[in-house]
Amino acid sequence: MNSDLSWDEFRLVKSIADARSLAGAAERLGVNQSTVYRRLAALEAAVGARLFDRSRAGYEPTSAGEDMIALAATMAASIIDFERRIAGRDVKPTGELSVTVPMSIGLHFMPAIVAQFQASNPGVIVELILSNQALDLSRRGVDVAVRLTNDPPETLVGRRICTARWCVYRRRDTAAEAEADTTEPFSFIGYGATLAPASGRRWIEANVDPGRIAAKANSAHCMLELALQGVGAALLPCFLGDRSPDLVRVGYPLPELDAGLWTLTHADLRRAARVRAFMDFAGGELTKHRRAIEGEEPSEG
Predict the structure, then answer these.
(1) 144, 97 in Cβ contact below 8 A?
(2) Distance CA 193, CA 234 (A)
(3) Residues in a beta bridge with 235
(4) d(Cα 75, Cα 69) in Å, to the nearest integer?
(5) 243-287 pLDDT, tens per residue?
């Protein structure tokens, strides 16, 4: 067996295992399929063992392949850790910075915050990743998370900004009509399959009869627009519902839905100049909106 194996060979095996095909591995590696085929054949000859069994279901690793894949995963994790540590040695805010943000926060607050930040830090290129899913910061490629949670992962460090609150909102004229006929239950706009928070979904399931659901959406901004069109009531973040004079609260903010608003990063990146600068700036700007986020500035009605 040739012991002079490089990271490229381990990456090749891991790519085939992840994609379960030579074509998929070729796409991941940026080469053509025939190159992957030749490299795999040469590698199996060098180690003296078959690494994959070919079947209709795809490329299945053999026991030797499993051993190599496990080692490749360990090597990849070590490389990611090294990259984070090197990134943490930055002395000035430069380079690319990826920031994952819940969709509602991202659309409502982040464009202005990023514009102001980059005006003072032109060497930093900010990539906003709007997602209602909690993306994994342990993987290199996501540097900062603005996250709504009451239980941030222990592997992350950061700052709690304030408490985000939710309330039910209806269009003002439909709410007035309902007062004249209190026996008629009003329609409701539900959460789409991919929209968080889970606590909001549970609240709707517990408090709104399925027959009252008139529409669903996977975006709080879309739910807001549906409510403005009179489709039904919507459970919205207070900073969205309160901004519209055509909507009115139904009751008070729901304390069981309260969630902390955090800025977080991986511990290895907290001293990186671009990460530290952005977290300090974004945290300060979001704090300026604390009253709106905590529902202390309701529209009249």
Answers:
(1) yes
(2) 16
(3) 168
(4) 10
(5) 999 999 999 999 999 999 999 998 888 788 899 999 999 999 999
